[in-house]
Amino acid sequence: MSALVDVTVTERDVDVSFEVADGETVALLGPNGAGKSTTLSVLGGLLRPDAGRIVLDGEELTGPGTWVAPHARRTALLAQDPLLFPHLSVLENVAFGPRSTGTGRRAARAAAEHWLAEVDAAELAGRRPAQLSGGQAQRVAVARALAADPRLLLLDEPMAALDVAVAPALRTLLRRVLADRTAVIVTHHVLDALLLADRVVVVEGGRVAEQGPTSEVLSRPRSAFAARFAGLNLVSGVATPDGVRRPDGLLLHGTAATGDHPPPGSPAVAVFRPSAVAVHREPPGGSPRNALAVVVTELEPLGDVVRVRAGELAADVTVASVAELGLAPGSDATFVVKATEVDVYAQ
């Protein structure tokens, strides 16, 4: 089931366009308020756009003069809250989907039993939602969504409310059940994108900033959000013969893949890992090729290292280095990175 999304929601300043291929999972990424959940609401029929079209498997669901009601779209939404009916048993909750489409009681019960077994929750069939843990309830919610046999599965941060010890098991479950389904997932977790999504669409300010195969976007990002999401530094500017020049005039030297260097003067980005950055309180002596004067904005512990953030840039250093340099929010510092550690490509 393929999907075409090309919609505008004027009040929320959202204007997005992308496609989902048959059997593909697309992750919508972006900062809070970017328009991701609005897009899901339009797909599910919970919000009517001001303009545009939604086409699912060749059927126009939304368009000029066309509006298919949510219950008739055969889409299913899995949100942070499982939203199980408290007065029904787990089995009855899962059977509700097929029953609502006219399936007989016996067939609906068989479908519910099948999907509960698929999500390793068969033993929960007789319980009520109040008797379930958060992870168990979300497993049941997955089974309920799949039992409805949706043409398109919509997931809005389904693991955001789960304990960190429970989320990995649900992520593994979703990886298995999404393998041959058409789905769109909103997430703020890089592992969700890497493990669940075939492609990602990055939305910033209500517009698609970039899109492409997950591995490509997260290894060679072209937007500031995608770079930070992937844990990389990104500097935008215009290409020069040996790097990227920022709007403020600073030249960042770097290398491009053979035959892949953007033409001089064209939009380009320089990308490098935080672990490749050395931090100094004073500009180092000599003439390092890339030295960026920054102001520290945040210190973020990451296991054995500390991520020193300076606006959109970051450097990973040891705890001992932070103490030795006396780094703190507001400190002046210099980020130094070798040109060989900087990848340059077209934006």
UniProtKB/TrEMBL annotation:
It comes from the Bacteria. Keywords: ATP-binding, Nucleotide-binding. One of its GO terms (molecular function) is ATP hydrolysis activity. PROSITE patterns: ABC_TRANSPORTER_1, ABC_TRANSPORTER_2, MOP. GO terms for biological process: molybdate ion transport. The keyword Nucleotide-binding applies. This is Molybdenum transport ATP-binding protein ModC. It comes from Nocardioides simplex (Arthrobacter simplex).
